[in-house]
Amino acid sequence: MTLKVGILGYRFMGKAHANALARLPMFFPDAPDIERDALVGRDKQALAEAADRFGFARTATDWRNVVEDVDVFYNLGPNHLHAEPSIAALEAGTHVFCEKPLAATTAAAKSMATAASDSDALAGCAFNYRFVPAIKYAKRLIEAGELGEIHHFRGTYLQDWLADPEAPWSWRNDAELAGSGALGDLGAHTVDLAHFLVGEVESVSGQLKTFVGERPVDGSDETRPVTVDDAYTAHARFENGAMGTFEASRFATGHKNDHSIEIHGSDGSLRFSLERLNELEVFREGNRGYETMLVTDESDPYIDAWWPPGHVIGWEHTFVHENYEFLSAVANDGEFAPSFADGFAVQRVLDAIEQSDARGERVTL
Ligand code: SOE
Question: How far apart are the C-alpha atoms of 363 and 304, rounded to whole Å?
């Protein structure tokens, strides 16, 4: 079976997913055949150049002309654009893969989850860090009971790209377009991993902070207001009794893209950092400290598709893994996680953190 694919968005995430589609035949030969059909965007010239580079047959400036003509629609646009095209595609029976966070608001995320539930088509949310071999390995350790009863989850996502007050304004700085700032862009990933590895969040108390209130607009003398958070912190209680701390910042000088988690259980602990994504640190009761494992053996998740042990993989490979899993589920009429319901569950935690910050009190979901 050949799946005809249309993609809305051709910049950063467009490149990451187009690269993943191009890698599939070489590294995952049992993946379904893909026809890179339509690339959707507004700037016709930039779109044509991207379509040529990414190997797409045609371009379109209106997603309405694409969602019913393809088998799979990728929504890689800015967060405020996630709902309408994805819902229209699902209502037309087109499978949808949507970037994270699911939406700019909880209400929009709920509508998307409902549309996915009502549709025969498959919908997935592109939380790519679930598809890091070391994270999959961590999931196996926890499910095998090797950490025992989980007591703590600690997740931070630290970047520094806005520490310079002169760094230009972008849609990620606008509440209407993005929904929130570091909370939704980065915190969404951490909350999803917490759900994946530990379980559902019961209550949170959090705070948001905006360090720089306006930024220059590229190519003009104007400035535009920053109406979202630059950083957030939160404490959480999980339904299973574990405790959690969450943090993300775009002002964490010294960190480029450091998504780190640490989990402590009664019988052991684990530690992971995206800046060393081929490694997992594991502490087992009785050892003197953490052991650093290189998760690149053929028996480790996804590694047999790539290279011999020790020939490390990178950030882009997580997109190949998630595309392989989603498109295989589409072709085989299977299931895929994270679903839109999973994306909506993340959005509810983000919303509760925002509510807690606004009300100055703990919020139960
Ligand atoms: C920007 O913060 C960004 O590209 C996020 O949007 C991605 O989800 C994250 O994986 C890397 O950083």
Answer: 44
Ligand 1 centroid–CA 2 distance in Å is: 30
Report which ligand 1 atom has the smallest distance to the Cα of 12: 4
The stretches of the chain forming alpha helices (DSSP H) are: 12-27, 44-54, 83-91, 106-118, 133-143, 175-178, 182, 188-197, 315-331, 340-359
In CATH, 130-364 is 3.30.360.10: yes
| pTM confidence score | 0.98
**Ligand 1 atom closest to Cα of residue 128:** 10
Which tokens belong to 309?
């042990």
> Of ligand 1's atoms, which has the minimum distance to the CA of residue 188?
8
> How high is the pLDDT of residue 199?
98
| Pick among 3.40.50.720, 3.40.50.10350, 3.40.50.300, 1.20.810.10: CATH of 2-129 | 3.40.50.720
Q: What is the pLDDT of residues 35-55, one digit of tens each?
A: 999 999 999 999 999 999 999
Residue 315 has pLDDT above 90, yes or no: yes
**230 within ligand 1 shell (Cβ under 6 A):** no
Buried b (16+ CB within 10 A) or exposed e, 209-222: ebebeebeeeeeee
